[in-house]
Description:
The chain contains two helices and no strands. It has helices at 30-45, 51-83.
Amino acid sequence: xxxxxxxxxxxxxxxxxxxxxSRHLRLTSARALRRELAAVYAQFRNGALSSEQTKTSxxxxxxxxxxxxxxxxxxxxxxxxxxx
Length: 84
Protein backbone atom coordinates (compact mmCIF):
# COMPACT_ATOMS: atom_id res chain seq x y z
CA UNK A 1 0.00 0.00 0.00
CA UNK A 2 1.42 3.40 -0.94
CA UNK A 3 0.88 6.61 0.92
CA UNK A 4 -1.25 9.26 -0.73
CA UNK A 5 0.66 12.31 -1.86
CA UNK A 6 -0.13 15.51 0.06
CA UNK A 7 -2.29 18.10 -1.62
CA UNK A 8 -0.75 21.56 -1.89
CA UNK A 9 -1.56 23.51 1.26
CA UNK A 10 -2.56 20.38 3.21
CA UNK A 11 -1.15 20.12 6.73
CA UNK A 12 0.77 16.92 7.32
CA UNK A 13 1.38 15.71 10.88
CA UNK A 14 5.03 15.66 11.92
CA UNK A 15 6.75 12.29 12.07
CA UNK A 16 8.77 12.06 15.24
CA UNK A 17 10.68 8.88 14.45
CA UNK A 18 10.83 7.77 18.06
CA UNK A 19 11.33 11.16 19.65
CA UNK A 20 9.33 11.75 22.79
CA UNK A 21 6.34 13.98 22.49
CA SER A 22 5.31 16.40 25.14
CA ARG A 23 2.36 18.71 24.80
CA HIS A 24 3.69 21.13 27.40
CA LEU A 25 7.37 21.18 26.58
CA ARG A 26 8.66 24.61 27.59
CA LEU A 27 12.16 25.31 26.40
CA THR A 28 12.36 28.75 27.98
CA SER A 29 15.34 28.27 30.27
CA ALA A 30 18.86 26.94 30.04
CA ARG A 31 17.89 24.19 32.49
CA ALA A 32 14.98 23.05 30.28
CA LEU A 33 17.20 23.08 27.20
CA ARG A 34 19.87 21.07 29.03
CA ARG A 35 17.31 18.48 30.09
CA GLU A 36 15.95 18.17 26.57
CA LEU A 37 19.45 17.86 25.15
CA ALA A 38 20.18 15.10 27.67
CA ALA A 39 16.96 13.36 26.64
CA VAL A 40 17.95 13.56 22.97
CA TYR A 41 21.35 12.10 23.81
CA ALA A 42 19.77 9.28 25.81
CA GLN A 43 17.42 8.47 22.94
CA PHE A 44 20.36 8.40 20.53
CA ARG A 45 22.33 6.11 22.84
CA ASN A 46 19.33 3.78 23.10
CA GLY A 47 18.93 3.64 19.33
CA ALA A 48 15.60 5.51 19.28
CA LEU A 49 17.05 8.36 17.18
CA SER A 50 19.18 8.26 14.09
CA SER A 51 22.37 10.24 13.85
CA GLU A 52 20.66 12.71 11.53
CA GLN A 53 17.70 13.21 13.91
CA THR A 54 20.14 13.73 16.77
CA LYS A 55 22.14 16.30 14.81
CA THR A 56 19.00 18.20 13.85
CA SER A 57 17.62 18.19 17.39
CA UNK A 58 20.97 19.27 18.83
CA UNK A 59 21.24 22.10 16.31
CA UNK A 60 17.76 23.37 17.14
CA UNK A 61 18.33 23.15 20.90
CA UNK A 62 21.67 24.96 20.63
CA UNK A 63 20.07 27.68 18.52
CA UNK A 64 17.31 28.11 21.09
CA UNK A 65 19.97 28.38 23.78
CA UNK A 66 21.76 31.09 21.86
CA UNK A 67 18.49 32.99 21.44
CA UNK A 68 17.79 32.73 25.19
CA UNK A 69 21.25 34.09 25.91
CA UNK A 70 20.77 36.96 23.46
CA UNK A 71 17.38 37.77 24.96
CA UNK A 72 18.93 37.90 28.44
CA UNK A 73 21.70 40.23 27.24
CA UNK A 74 19.17 42.52 25.55
CA UNK A 75 17.05 42.66 28.71
CA UNK A 76 20.07 43.51 30.86
CA UNK A 77 21.22 46.17 28.42
CA UNK A 78 17.77 47.76 28.36
CA UNK A 79 17.70 47.81 32.16
CA UNK A 80 21.13 49.48 32.28
CA UNK A 81 20.09 52.05 29.71
CA UNK A 82 16.97 52.92 31.71
CA UNK A 83 19.08 53.58 34.83
CA UNK A 84 21.10 56.23 33.02
